[in-house]
């Protein structure tokens, strides 16, 4: 962003004139050459005010004109100039803007087709000309590939081919990706020449294309030999085996691109750091801008280029070996992530209009490939990708194919946990399977999404626990506590859910807390904060560095606050909107209702505490759905929870809960206390709203309360 020109006060200008022979420049009166000369001069003599004035003038100059001025200037060390300007506070920002403008111009100019063509023509005009031209072509990087390849294909320029090949080799790695795309599609002579170039560069990214040429039975023998020599040279230098098939090498190339895009996208060869975009290459056998067959760059958003390259490599691998299942998994995985990472409002020009949506290919690929997608998502902690895999599995898979979703029940992001539980619950298995007991508690967590948070506090002494309880309560947590996780099992069982485990002790005690929590279906994915003294903290952190749900912190309120909030966030994912929270709760309640009335391996009682809490929910739809679900459960606490809120609530919720109370009594008998029975009768007598009166009467009758109550009402007593 350039600064707007500003005018110095006349007093300042006159003052400047009194001490220097150089007059302050004007953007309207001075050309770019003079403005640049003035800027450089004032920076060198440490006159920031006048340098700033010159910089303001340069703001009105086009990037190309500015670069012309810089290149024509006698002052050839602009890097040192800008380094000096950066040390002058009043001018550093303006100098940075001028420098950025020059860099933009250099980038644009280096990639101009006319300049690239001129530099290629210059390569054969002597050593000095070759070095200068190659240096400029290096600045163009991969964007020099189309025209350099076109020159190499051109038989009329055969005399120039050796020097062009030499320059390609000197430019090196930036050319490997585009040249590798072109290699399998070239005529024999050019194919052999390009194989030689790629072998000289020595970068392993060329190995799949070289092996593809070697494996093709139609390859010219001379070109095949050149490709074999190049492959052997690269394999020897990079310690990569050359025995793998081309399909396997393309798969490895795609997987490498996917992994790099996961860990450090800026390291991708296809990423252009100067523009923040990505470059993907195609070889077009039809007419291109070079006047014949050639390379075509496709510019894509930088956020997705690693996935696009992975898809491209996977697709080539499948072309060579349609039975290569890992390549299909990679294509589906990268395609789903590409869609997730595509910035809103931007287009992916590499994705042709005749392709289907990524979810289409995910479902067509089938459950086994989706298992691979889900495993990658969970390993990478990519919640969006995991949700995509779960959605596709839910739509296409049988129960047996759904069981890998059990791993999703312990995933940090709550959306993934909830969707995994929903998919497994929807299948309603009649036979037990490994870890099936974890499904219903996760549905219970989905029901109880609200402001309340509960922590389990573990410590050997009550004094230690009380201190931790005080600290965690200050963060808004309700607490239960015990000497160990196992000792608190009874309390955990009747608690709607546990959001955090707070433990204090030696390494063995923390290990025991971890093991005990893993064996408890309500605690298996609960994050753990372990408190330690200064001497123990570093050692314990090392002991548990591979346990993502454990954070070892120094004792103290400040560190506890930070650790709890950070760990809670990482084990919840981004916050749910109220609409999302309600949608998850209602979906879970619907599934829990079906579990309650079905013959299934799941036990709805595992969510009973959460359901009892949910019937008190201030969201009417959630409270009503919770009451409906509780009415299907043959348990005194379930009926009592319905009754308590049927008496205390009002409006539509109260009416619905009274009807639920009646249905519970019809199905399971009267399980409520005498006092609650009296409260129901009092409601029958006092109800003024006709609908409320009818609902209360229905509950009274279903509970089989004494008939004299009805007689009294009839007689008006």
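-> sequence recovered:
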């Amino acid at each position: 962003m350039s600064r707007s020109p500003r005018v110095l006060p006349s007093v300042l200008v006159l003052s400047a004139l009194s001490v220097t022979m150089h007059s302050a420049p004007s953007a309207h009166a001075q050309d770019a050459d003079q403005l640049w000369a003035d800027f450089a001069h004032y920076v060198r003599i440490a006159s920031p005010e006048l340098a700033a004035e010159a910089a303001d003038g340069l703001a009105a100059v086009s990037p190309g004109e500015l670069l012309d001025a810089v290149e024509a200037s006698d002052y050839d060390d602009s890097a040192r100039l800008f380094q000096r300007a950066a040390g002058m506070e009043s001018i550093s920002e303006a100098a940075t803007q001028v420098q950025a403008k020059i860099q933009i111009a250099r980038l644009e100019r280096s990639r101009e087709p006319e300049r690239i063509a001129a530099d290629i023509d210059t390569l054969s005009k002597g050593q000095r000309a070759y070095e200068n031209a190659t240096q400029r072509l290096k600045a163009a990087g991969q964007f020099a590939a189309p025209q350099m390849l076109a020159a190499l294909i051109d038989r009329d320029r055969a005399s120039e081919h050796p020097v062009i090949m030499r320059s390609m080799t000197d430019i090196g790695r930036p050319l490997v990706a585009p040249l590798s795309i072109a290699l399998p599609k070239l005529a024999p002579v050019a194919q052999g020449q390009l194989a030689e170039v790629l072998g000289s560069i020595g970068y392993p990214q060329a190995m799949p294309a070289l092996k593809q040429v070697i494996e093709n039975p139609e390859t010219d023998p001379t070109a095949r030999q050149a490709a074999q020599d190049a492959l052997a040279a690269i394999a020897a230098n990079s310690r990569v085996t050359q025995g793998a098939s081309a399909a396997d090498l393309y798969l490895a190339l795609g997987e490498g691109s996917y992994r790099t895009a996961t860990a450090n996208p800026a390291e991708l060869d296809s990423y252009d750091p100067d523009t923040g975009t990505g470059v993907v290459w195609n070889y077009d056998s039809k007419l291109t801008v070079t006047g014949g067959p050639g390379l075509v760059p496709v510019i894509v958003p930088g956020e997705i280029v690693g996935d696009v390259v992975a898809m491209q490599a996977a697709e080539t691998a499948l072309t060579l070996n349609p039975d290569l299942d890992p390549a299909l998994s990679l294509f589906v995985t990268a395609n789903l992530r590409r869609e997730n990472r595509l910035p809103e409002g931007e287009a992916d020009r590499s994705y042709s209009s005749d392709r289907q949506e990524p979810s289409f290919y995910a479902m067509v690929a089938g459950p086994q490939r989706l298992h691979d997608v889900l495993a990658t998502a969970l390993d990478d902690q990519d919640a969006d990708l995991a949700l995509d895999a779960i959605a596709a599995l839910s739509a296409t898979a049988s129960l047996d194919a759904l069981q890998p979703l059990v791993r999703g029940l312990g995933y940090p992001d709550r959306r993934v946990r909830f969707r995994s539980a929903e998919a497994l619950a929807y299948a309603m298995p009649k036979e037990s399977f490994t870890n099936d007991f974890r499904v219903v508690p996760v549905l219970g967590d989905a029901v109880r999404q609200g402001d309340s948070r509960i922590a389990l506090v573990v410590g050997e002494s009550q004094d230690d626990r009380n201190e931790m309880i005080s600290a965690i309560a200050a963060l808004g947590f309700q607490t239960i506590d015990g000497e160990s996780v196992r000792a608190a099992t009874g309390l955990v069982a009747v608690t709607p859910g546990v959001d955090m485990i707070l433990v204090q002790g030696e390494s063995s005690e923390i290990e025991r807390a971890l093991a005990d929590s893993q064996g408890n279906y309500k605690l298996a994915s609960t994050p753990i904060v372990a408190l330690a003294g200064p001497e123990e903290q570093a050692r314990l952190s090392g002991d548990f560095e591979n346990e993502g749900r454990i954070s070892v912190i120094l004792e103290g309120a400040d560190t506890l606050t930070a650790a709890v909030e950070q760990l809670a966030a990482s084990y919840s994912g981004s916050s749910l909107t109220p609409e999302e929270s309600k949608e998850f709760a209602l979906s879970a309640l619907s599934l829990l209702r079906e579990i309650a009335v079905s013959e299934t391996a799941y036990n709805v009682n595992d969510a009973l505490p959460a359901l009892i809490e949910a019937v008190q929910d201030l969201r009417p739809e959630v409270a009503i759905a919770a009451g409906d679900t509780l009415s299907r459960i043959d348990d005194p606490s379930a009926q009592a929870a319905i009754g308590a809120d049927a008496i205390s609530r009002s409006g539509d919720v109260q009416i619905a809960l009274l009807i639920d109370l009646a249905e519970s009594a019809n199905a399971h008998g009267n399980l409520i206390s005498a006092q609650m029975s009296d409260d129901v009768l009092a409601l029958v007598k006092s109800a003024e709203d006709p609908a409320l009166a009818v609902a209360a009467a229905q509950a009274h009758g279903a509970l089989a309360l004494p008939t004299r109550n009805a007689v009294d009402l009839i007689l008006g007593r």
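The chain has five domains: 10-110, 124-131+141-243, 246-324, 450-570, 596-714.
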